[in-house]
Write a structure and sequence with these properties.
Blueprint (H helix, E strand, L loop, with lengths): L13 H10 L1 E4 L5 H17 L23 H4 L5 E5 L18 E6 L1 H4 L1 H7 L14 H7 L5 E9 L9 E4 L7 E2 L4 E3 L13 E8 L2 E9 L10 H4 L19 E5 L4 E3 L10 E8 L4 E2 L13 E2 L5
Antiparallel strand pairs: 1-10, 2-3, 3-4, 4-12, 4-14, 5-11, 6-13, 7-10, 7-12, 8-9
Cofactor: Fe cation
Family: Belongs to the PhyH family.
InterPro entries: Phytyl_CoA_dOase-like
Length: about 300
């Protein structure tokens, strides 16, 4: 059977858009070419092998489960326009020293790869003059198909899911961490349908002392809890009965995730790592990016996927 024609080159068909808003996620096969996948993997291994431990604060990335605090030191809070490395909690021994080689101890690399790393930048902003070509699925075209007027890429990261120690990530919603009013976050990287009945109840915000950010806190969300025009929220769709299902993907596939969607990952106890690249986009036009979000825009603003019309 022939593949359905996308609504715009590199975008989504109307059927895919309907599926995304119905289920809260969409798996798009072969979104990246094999050569792009190979280039991004090579870049990931180069970064893991070349970063220095000499001046590293050894920041561990914590998801806040089992009573642990979310990561919130300055190395993390000021990473919005830098490429930084965050370690797995289980990569350290009782004395606080690494018990794994550094390349197999990193939880994630973030959060400005989409600007500072050429292979990853080429995914969101390919430069024809540099010989970079658009991928089969183009983020700008996907955002346009979803109705974004001025989408901005605000963070990107490689998540390593290291062998044996790759930590579990508890159920969460991306809009909890990247809140706009009204909510607009979309993850380009699960609980089908949970975005229709799971409001954004909490938010991860900066904790300040004397006007200086010193950490993060999870607080109750007093703002808008669903994207605008969500008929499920208007009808009180909270409490929808659904079950988690695995999303099976191959190298180069894209998983598109709604900001209200509950999703999680289990601990990696296998001998094989699972490397993924993910970035998040928000709507700039008609929304307010909250000043208390842990991630604040760099001086030049968040990266445009395309100019507003």
């Amino acid at each position: 059977m022939a593949t359905a024609q996308r609504h715009e080159t590199g975008g989504l068909t109307p059927e895919q858009v309907e599926t995304f808003y119905r289920d809260g996620y969409l798996i798009i096969p072969q979104a990246l070419t094999p050569s792009t996948v190979a280039a991004c993997l090579a870049e990931t291994h180069r970064l893991l092998d070349s970063f220095s431990l000499e001046d590293h604060p050894m920041t561990r990335f914590s998801t806040g489960q089992e009573g642990a605090e979310h990561v919130g030191d300055d190395y993390f809070l000021s990473s919005g326009d830098k490429v930084r490395f965050f370690f797995e909690e289980d990569a350290f021994g009782p004395d606080g020293s690494l018990i794994k080689p550094k390349a197999r101890a990193v939880n994630k690399i973030g959060h400005y790869l989409h600007e500072l790393s050429a292979p990853f930048r080429a995914i969101t902003r390919p430069d024809p003059a540099a010989g970079e070509t658009s991928q089969p699925v183009r983020p700008a075209a996907v955002a346009r198909a979803l109705g974004f007027r001025d989408p901005r890429c605000l963070q990107s990261m490689v998540i390593c899911k290291q062998p044996e120690i790759g930590g579990a990530v508890p159920p969460h919603q991306d809009s909890t961490f990247l809140y706009t009013d009204p909510p607009s976050a979309v993850g380009f990287c699960f609980l089908p349908g949970s975005h229709r009945g799971a409001p954004i109840r909490q938010r991860l915000v900066r904790r300040e002392q004397g006007g200086v950010a010193v950490g993060t806190d999870m607080v109750a969300n007093e703002g808008t809890r669903f994207p605008p025009g969500d008929e499920y929220a208007e009808k009180g769709g909270e409490g929808t009965e659904t079950a988690y299902v695995p999303g099976e993907v191959k190298a180069g596939d894209l998983v598109l995730i709604h900001g209200n969607l509950l999703h999680k990952s289990e601990k990696n106890t296998s001998q094989k790592g699972r490397i993924i690249y993910t970035f998040h986009a928000i709507e700039q036009d008609g929304t307010k990016y909250d000043e208390w979000n842990w991630l604040q825009p760099p001086e030049q603003g968040f990266t445009r996927l395309y100019a507003s019309s």
